[in-house]
């Protein structure tokens, strides 16, 4: 099953950031196991453009639509047998210590 893991900042990181694993090691291990299908950091939130259509009119907004201090800074597409495996993959990611990770299963259309 595929899961999208959104990598987000957080206003309350772990008090011991030294405990966070190395990101390069995490990527190499996940890529080697086949659990990480694709992933990337995102450009700064200032480069975002929000697209909406309301009453047939195109509305573009610079930056994210939501006003928040927590932002999505990256993503990983995971291939896991179930949610438990996806949680194990996420708990080893450095941003589990410094930010937060949101797991969402992909839905077949």
From TrEMBL:
Domain (YCII-related): residue spans on this chain: 1-108
Q: What's this protein's name? A: YCII-related domain-containing protein
What InterPro entries does this protein's entry cite?
Dimeric_a/b-barrel, YCII
Q: Which family does it belong to?
A: Belongs to the YciI family.
Q: Which PANTHER family match?
A: BLL7171 PROTEIN, BLL7171 PROTEIN-RELATED
Question: What is the species listed in this Swiss-Prot or TrEMBL entry?
Answer: Micromonospora antibiotica
- What SUPFAM superfamilies does the record tag this protein with? Dimeric alpha+beta barrel
């Amino acid at each position: 099953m595929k899961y999208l893991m959104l990598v987000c900042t957080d206003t309350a990181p772990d008090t011991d950031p030294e405990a966070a694993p190395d990101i390069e090691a995490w990527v190499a291990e996940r890529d080697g196991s086949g659990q990480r299908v694709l992933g990337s950091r995102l450009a700064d939130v200032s480069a975002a453009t929000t697209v909406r259509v309301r009453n047939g009119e195109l509305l573009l907004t610079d930056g994210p639509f939501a006003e928040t201090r927590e932002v999505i800074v990256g993503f990983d597409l995971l291939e896991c047998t179930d949610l438990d495996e996806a949680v194990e993959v996420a708990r080893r990611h450095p941003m589990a210590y410094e930010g937060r990770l949101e797991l969402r299963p992909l839905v077949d259309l």
